[in-house]
Design a protein that fits this description.
This protein has 175 residues and is mostly helical. Among the domains are: 54 residues; 67 residues, no CATH class. Helix content is 38%, strand content 3%. The protein has four helices and two strands. A two-stranded parallel sheet has the order 1-2. Helix 1 packs antiparallel against helix 2.
């Protein structure tokens, strides 16, 4: 089979891709751990333990690659809005509210007052968007291009591949 890049999973931002890879390796390691607990075959346990350990090695490798890119945060090209990058809105007040370096300390401006947690962008708190004429024209064009037809119910890949437990699918429903 000729090589293709079909398996490549990238959004075009190396630091975001590295973080995604790190998370994928962590999830895979946990899956192997769980599989190990449901088998008593020593050969299978040995193979799963090897694969689980490779996930650790991969995670370490991806983390080293991430931290070799400077700067590596924030991901993407645009900076965050400085009005909000250092603010922690404490929305989890009450029993179980935990404080740590992720939400307290010198780098954070903690906002706990409920009145100060709404309409933080200077608006009135309602969900509105102001568009100029060019943006409105683009939105209208996009709305037409992406318009769905609620009367159209085509057979899909999920319908064609449905097996036991899939529930009702297009084609087997009597209308």
């Amino acid at each position: 089979m000729p090589w293709t890049s079909a398996y490549v999973d990238s959004i075009g931002c190396p630091t975001s891709d590295m973080r995604s890879n790190i998370a994928a390796e962590a999830r895979a390691k946990v899956v192997y751990e769980r599989l190990i607990t449901v088998t008593d075959d020593p050969g299978i346990v040995d193979a799963l333990r090897f694969l689980m350990t490779r996930e650790v090695a991969h995670q370490k490798s991806f983390e080293k690659a991430l931290y070799s890119i400077e700067p590596n945060f924030p991901p993407g090209k645009l900076p965050g809005d400085p009005r909000f990058t250092d603010i922690y809105y404490n929305m989890s007040q009450g029993e179980g509210d935990t404080v740590g370096p992720w939400n307290a300390g010198e780098q954070w401006d903690v906002v706990a007052d409920r009145e100060l947690q709404s309409a933080v962008d200077g608006g009135d708190g309602s969900a509105t968007v102001a568009l100029d004429a060019t943006q409105t024209e683009a939105l209208d064009a996009m709305s037409l291009r992406l318009l769905s037809n609620p009367e159209l119910d085509r057979v899909t890949g999920a319908d064609l591949g449905a097996g036991p437990g899939a529930g009702s699918t297009t084609g087997d429903i009597q209308r």
